[in-house]
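Task 17 of the worksheet. Students: predict the tertiary structure of the chain below and write it out as structure tokens. Keep your answer in the requested format; marks are given for formatting as well as content.
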Amino acid sequence: LGLTLYTGHLCAVSAAAFLYHDYCVIGAGPSGLQAAYFLQRAGRDYIIFERSHAPGSFFALYPRHRKLISINKRYTGKSNSEFNLRHDWNSLLSHDRRLLFRRYSRDFFPDADAMVRYLEDFASLLKLRVQYNTAIVHVMLEKDRQAWNGHYFLLTDQDRQNYKCSSLLVATGTWVPNVVNFPGSEYVEGYETVSINPEDFAGQTVLILGRGNSAFETAENILGVTNFIHMVSRSRVRLSWATHYVGDLRAINNGLLDTYQLKSLDGLLEGDLEDLAIVKDKKGKLHITLRFYLENRNTSGGIDSITLPQDELDNFATRAPYDRVIRCLGWKFDFSIYNRSLRMMPGKGNKKKYPQIKPSYESRGTRGLFVLGTASHSVDFRKSAGGFIHGFRYTTRAVHRLLENRHHGVPWPSTVYPITQLTNSIIKRVNEASGLYQMFSVLADIILLRENATAFEYLEEYPVGVLAELEMQTGRKAPSGLFVIIMEYGRNFSGADKDVFYYNRAVGEAQHAWQSNFLHPVIYFYKHLPTEREMRLQHPDWPLPRPDAIHHIVEDFLTDWTAPNAHILPLRRFLENCLSTDLRNFFAESCFLFAFTHQKLPPFCRQGYMRLQGLVGSEGLRRHAVEAGLLEDYTLTDFLGDRTPDNHKGSQDRLLRDHMIPVRPLQHLVNAKDE
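Model answer:
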């Protein structure tokens, strides 16, 4: 008995040592705060762990030169808040209009300090539950069949306080600097510590390792004071306007390209950094050589025995010595805090800086562990905007909706409309939806057909990578086919070697819409939900498997897809062909005539006119329709015979007012006519 009581006491103490929450969020950066906002609005039990004393600690240091490259377009000429988010790359999603980034900065490219203030206000004004000065140093699993995912996540902070949660949301971003080790790498300064005072580089010769925005940002800062700058990387420069990827080199930082191409001493070189070696001479100058020469030198001869490339090739590009070498190679995810039981593995190839995750943003190794924000960019790396605020604010919302369905039985939000509203619903979304626009080819609107295509259910911004799992992930059924609406660039328009300014780069005719190059809506039609096998075998350059039918809405210079002939009419005819139905809208007079001449009325007449719904008739409306050629100009004298003009207006108004006739008499007349 004593042993049993003692064991029970130990279990109670052990349980008390863990502070429990349903959801644990690691990191109070933009994605962590965005996740917390949705959890709080849903009334869920959560906590955010932040190692710093304030949210957004990454932006307190980076970018080093304090100029963000995310645009802050304060004016668009429109008042639609959803549309305006297409051009606001810094705001997080919330119901509070005070928390729009344009209220924090007037600059098109804002200062990073404005982002720090914005994130502090976002956390405080919304009263998000953030536990500051808490660095999670270890994460492991505890198996338990009663847990949501078959296990709990056990977290330990720097003070050895333990926490337990059912679902873990990792929003730490990528903050560990990428470092390449080679002989002489100890002479290299890191982007994270190098001086940002241009005067410290006056009259110096500088070599920069790397070719991303941080490298060009550093070069831009010292361009006017150095002797010259050389930049070395293993890949060619990628311009964001050519690749249509916002993570590539932006125009705000590309001054060195001018000085290189206009022969003003600066230059770009390609080479594998791991093959390099740096040698420091007696004067403190840094010489570039190859690892091969260093490995074969006579170690007893000192520095003078080292063979430099210019000893064999006297016009070697980097033969001039450098005063400083700066490493600007970006960042990677911190895997060190995760126990092997979580199986958090790095990706492969150019995605190795990110953890491996599914298209649902859930870890491939552990159920219930989701990666948010920049660290989730492996899903759309070099394709879309998932590694940036204007992209992951939407993918974070998608993850929240997946969790709501999985753990709380709340289906993915949807709206049911009559089929007559199908064209209008699509046109409205492609013209204003920000999630589709920013996360092109990654998030899609899904239209589920219902009731023999007499109605449809509309789901917004669902991850297309898990389309085959739609019924399980959303709690919605797709028994009668579906449409998938996404945004795409042209197939061969984006790339580092593409000329995106060639003369006939745009398409204007609807019949050539499939050749559109710029971002435009694409509608996929499937008679059945694609299977897992079809998703695996899809073409690597396609966001979705081969559909039963596909329609491109022709690109538009103003991104305004409302032209009746170029945009709406081709879309409506495509939808009609897929559904084998008539989606046109009709005036009451046309529906009245159809009731006498057709056994089956168009959906608009069945769902509107025959249910005593529609526009109230008036002489002004009738005259407008006649002048537009939409109605025949029937005169009431054909029916009124010899009635006096005084009674004409009253009879006309009465006819317009009483134009709707009950369903049964109409059907009776139709049957009589058929007989």
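Marker's comment: The longest helix spans residues 389-408. Residues 588-622 form one domain.
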